[in-house]
Amino acid sequence: SKYVPPNQIASLSSQEDHKADDSFNYKSFFSTVGLSSKTPDQIKKVFGILDQDKSGFIEEEELQLFLKNFSSSARVLTSAETKAFLAAGDTDGDG
C-alpha cells in the first residue's frame, strides 16, 4: 500500500498543472495518492473531510472545493470537473 503524507497531497493539489481550469484529472490524482489501496476506515476519514455539512452525502458544492481541502492555495474545481468527479464516485446513482 502506497502511503502519501498529507503535505504531499497538498503539494499535488496546488501544482501548476492543476491550476488551469478543466486541468484536474481525478483518475491520475487518486492513482498518485493511492486511493484504491486505502482501508475502509481511511476512505471514511476522507469522506468526512469532504462532507463539510455532515449530511452523509458529498454535494456538488462540497466537491468543488475538493482541492482546497488539502491546500488553501489550490483552485476551486470547474463545474465540468466537479460533475465528472461526482459521477465517477456515485456508484449507487443517488447523486
From TrEMBL:
Residues 38-73 form the EF-hand domain. SUPFAM superfamilies: EF-hand. The keyword Metal-binding applies. Ca(2+) binds at residues 51, 53, 55, 57, 62, 90, 92, 94. Keywords: Calcium, Metal-binding, Repeat. Gene3D superfamilies: EF-hand. GO terms for molecular function: calcium ion binding. It comes from the Eukaryota. GO terms for cellular component: cytoplasm. Belongs to the parvalbumin family. In muscle, parvalbumin is thought to be involved in relaxation after contraction. It binds two calcium ions. This is Parvalbumin.
